[in-house]
Amino acid sequence: MSSLATRFQRQLPLLTTAFIFAALFGVAAFSYEGFFSARTITSLLTDNAFVGIAAVGMTLVIFAGGIDLSVGAVIGFTAIFTATLIEQKHMAPPLAWALGLFAGSGLGAFMGSLIHFFRLPPFLITLAGMFLARGAAFWITTESVGINHELYNRITAYELPLSETGLSASALMLLGMLLLGYFIGHHTRFGRNLLAVGGNEQSALLMGLPVGATKISVYAFNGFCASLAGIVATLYTGSGNPSLGIGLELDAIAIVVIGGTLLTGGRGHIAGTLLGILIFGTIQAAILFDGRLSSWWVRISVGVLLLVFILVQRTLAQQLVARKTVA
Amino acid sequence: MSSKPDSIRTANPVRWPLIGLAALVLLNAVFNPAFLKITVLDGNLYGTPIDILVQGSRTMLVALGMTLVIATGGIDLSVGSVVAISGAVCGTLLVGGHGLAVTLAAALAAGLLAGGINGLLIARLGLQPIVATLILMVAGRGVAQLIVDGQVVIIANPTFEYFSNGFFLSLPVSPLLVGAMFVLTHLALRQTAVGLFIEAVGDNEKASRFAGLAAARIKALAYVFCGGCAGLAGILTASNIRAADAYRAGENMELDAIFAVVVGGTALSGGRFLILGTAIGALLIQTLTTTMYNLGVPPAVAPVPKALLIIGVSLLQSDRVGRWLRGLWPKKEAA
């Protein structure tokens, strides 16, 4: 009985998030004609595929109590890097993607090593990484590079047919990464190590967990996710642009936090990240449907929503602590 | 008369940034003798060093506020957006026909308000500084765009331009203003106990609270001050480019400011600050930026060397590297 209650309590943030998504979507469906359709949902996934993929990696980093501000810049770098390789060096896209993914993971591993070995604050190192990746992106070119490749055309034309609409390759990629993140985060020893490190690094160390390897790997994995997001972005826009993904790190962090993952680390769920992506996408879609509000309202509303969720999280956490001390 | 073994290392904390600045200036002077040349035109001073002072004054201002925030053990990522908001307020009010005094007061108030929000979230509600200020970093740019309705507002007001492009007694105005701010802040912090309070809170918040300090209020005030500095920097930026650009104004400023503070010897972990170090750090980063422009590095690529340098400086300040370096010269350190 009491175990059921604690189980419920543990899922409470997730349930709250699900409820908020339902309410938000309901209000939007009620307010805007044509909002409630399968196409809206599939395009939610397609339109937010690259933010979502970045959010999967960010979720795992935040599990471990870290933060990565470089993801937006890594997306921009990978996009222009792969686009240039394909268009100007006439490289086969899979090879260009592999190089892009390698670069992103490498930068992640480098930042993770600095953070771990020299005990430097993650935000500072990843902020430096952000400027590094963004500068490198503009170094390649400041212009947008259009991609005309047969493979690209085939991928963008592909849709997994559902009843009345289809899932694009980008949406499928997002769902695949969510599944991978779910598997890594919740069903592997590595995932448990992440949560242990995020919960209390000192304890994790005393328990004999490989703290250093865990931290470095999670930043490397996040770099991988960010560069994969960059590749998906080139599919989505049909081009590479060095200024792609500016400010995207906050969107990714917001998605993770809205999904109920604690920013202080040690607790969270990938399913919450999926809900976070849907909420984030619904806000954007609703503002687009409305047409009266400008795009910068997205920024403002995401900021406000993030703030509200953090405050709610804090209150919930405080209540849990209070209950524990009473019992 | 301290006999602590590391007294030499702490004897002159601004030594390293000064050496860095001197090295950079020297390097420039060797490769480009015109670098140090100052000319007098219409009774006013011109030249690359003057440019560096004028362009660096905004970073210095933002870094001044950031110094106090970092000294309390926090961080403010929102300064760039606050610069944009304050500039947007300037543009909208001036174009709307309001007086200069009202405009300046409103722009400063916007900065103070932004700092107040940060302070409230961090000191009262206990949010992590990175997160709280990240919210304003992103939402703030949206607010700035909202104020100017997504436009770049052109400002044509000679008095307003004077702040950033004018001369006073042959000297450029903005470095004078910012220099005065530094001196005033230094006096306010070091001639009273406020500086000590800030360091106490940054060193150990709990202990300072037990010692009777209003720790939350001191922390909140640091953010308000930082917001105010960013607001002033926004005024200078709008005055410098004669426009309010909500999208680009204050871009990358948070990194420059953090860089200036860290290079200047203020520890990111909080608990001590060096205002003079920050000023030198800000000049160092501006000299670096100007050097890169002179070398023909495109502005968009300029963050790369800066990022590498900030990683290098943080590494030098980390314990592990410190131990390693001391291991290399054990005799000299002991002497």
UniProtKB/TrEMBL annotation, chain A:
One Pfam family, please name it.
BPD_transp_2
Q: Does Transcription regulation show up as a keyword for this record?
A: no
The record's subcellular location field reads: Cell membrane
Task: Please give the InterPro entries that the UniProt record associates with this protein.
Answer: ABC_transp_permease
Q: Does the keyword Transport apply?
A: no
Question: Where is it found, in Gene Ontology cellular component terms?
Answer: plasma membrane
Q: Which GO terms describe its molecular function?
A: transmembrane transporter activity
Residue spans crossing the bilayer = 12-30, 50-83, 95-117, 123-141, 162-184, 216-237, 244-263, 269-289, 296-316
Listed A to Z, the keywords are: Cell membrane, Membrane, Transmembrane, Transmembrane helix
For membrane topology, the record states:
Multi-pass membrane protein
PANTHER family on file: ABC TRANSPORTER PERMEASE PROTEIN YPHD-RELATED-RELATED, INNER MEMBRANE ABC TRANSPORTER PERMEASE PROTEIN YJFF
Cite the NCBIfam families for this sequence.
PRK11618.1
How is this protein named in the record? Sugar ABC transporter permease YjfF
Instruction: Record the organism.
Output: Oleiharenicola lentus
